[in-house]
Amino acid sequence: MEIHKQLNDIAFEALFNNATIGIITADNTGTIVLANPYALFQFGYKAEELIGQRIEKLIPGRFAHGHEHKRDNYIRKPQSRPMGVGLDLFAKRRDDSEFPVEISLSSYKLDTHTYVIAFIIDISVRKESERNLLAQQKETETIAEQLKQLNEQLEQKVEDRTNMLRETLHELEKSRDELAEALEKEKELNDLKSRFVSMASHEFRTPLSTILSSVSLIDSYKHEDEQEKRQKHIHRIKDQVRNLSNILEEFLSLGRLEEGLVLDKKEDFDLRAMITELISEMASLTKHRQKVLLDFTGSEKVFIDKSLLRNILLNLISNALKYSLEASDILISVFQTADKLSIHIKDSGMGISEEDLKHLADRFFRGTNAINIQGTGLGLHIVKKYLEVMGGQISFASKLHEGTEVTLIFNQQ
Looking at domain 267-411, does it have CATH number 3.90.1170.50? Predict the structure, then answer.
């Protein structure tokens, strides 16, 4: 037994003297009774300079007073525990310089006295690494902000070039070569808008091919009795130019919305008269024997942004006509009460799958059953953005091959 105790004493002494962390033992008054060589090295003291001193000698002055209270509390209820989790702890060397530390505490009793063992780790290197990491993070944030600003500048260039494209299209009949060059420049300058470029080039190609084909055919009609054929192709050109204009208008509308340039400007007007006029204007879009019907309940006077509502209805009615068959009816139902305006647009067209309904108002989204039908995938996204400006809501109910009903809700309070 005595040999075993001696071996334990030797092992403890070896551990105490050779440990690579500081170990200091203090009694219940906070007086240092033991300090291992590594602790003496950490703090720059000789053993005779430190033994017998209060533990607060190793604590920076701004913390020493509060430490006495914490030490007394620990002595009353001692337990093994890590200290400084989530805190910045500092120790003071003999030359009054400070260094960051992590400290774990343990305690033991000898006779009637309680002793506290402090295990001290100098974490200066780790703190320096953390400071370097924070500096790198700050530098990364600065670079990210610079990239953000560069992206905003590039987006502004994209918008500028889009406007150039719109002006070029207005002069299409004067120079087809200029239009082709403008489209090419548009594609080159919109690298950051790859999806936009892909969609735009796809939607421009079909109408431009139709226009070029019609222009070539018109040029081949030399005789006066071929005026009817020429007129037919002139109408085709006008339709396709109008289609191109609508596509560009969608792109420009999206840009104005994202920049916050579209504001809610309410006014009083006759809603029935506005919808009736809109239906009349869209007569040229109807297929053979298609009809747009209007059912109105409640007051015909409304106080809402007329321009935005007109654009919304134009988009939704156009979709209903485009995705419905010939000889089908589009029903517009309007209900107005004292506090709510609701507008329903119902068709009996191809319908929308349940999966596609989830993404219907996403930018550039096209339904899986509408891929071969001309469109940019921006219309409903813009409608949703207009409604956000107006404080309105939109919902869709649809089944494949059975049709779709779109509901608009506006609070009138």
Answer: no
**Phi and psi at residue 196, in whole multiples of 5°?**
-60, -45
Amino acid identity of 338?
A: A
pLDDT of residue 373: 63
* Alpha-carbon Rg for the chain in angstroms: 40
Every domain of the chain with CATH number 3.30.565.10 lies at 267-411
Q: CB under 8 Å to 193, separation ≥6 — which residues?
A: 155, 158
Residue of 170, 121, 114 lying closest to 22 (CA atoms): 121
Whole-number Å distance between alpha carbons of 343 and 122: 71
pLDDT of the residue at 189 = 46
Which residue type sits at 149?
Q
Q: What angle is formed at CA 93 by the lines to CA 87 and CA 98, rounded to 5 degrees?
A: 40
Give 87-114 pLDDT, tens digit per residue. 678 888 989 898 898 888 888 888 778 8
pTM for the model stands at 0.44
Report which listed range, 167-171, 206-210, 234-238, is most confident: 167-171
pLDDT tens-digit profile of 395-406? Answer: 988 888 888 899
- Looking from the CA of 41 toward its CB, the CA atoms found within 13 Å total 12
Burial call 237-270: b when 16+ CB within 10 Å, e when fewer = bebbbebbeebbebbebbbebeeeebeeeeeebe
CATH 3.30.450.20: which residues of the chain?
A: 2-122
| Distance from the first to the final alpha carbon of the chain | 92
For domain 2-122, the CATH class is alpha beta
Local confidence band at 202 (pLDDT 50, 70, 90 cut-offs): very low
- Res 278 pLDDT > 60: yes
**β-strand partners of 99:** 91
Give the Cα separation of 264 and 387 in Å (integer). 10
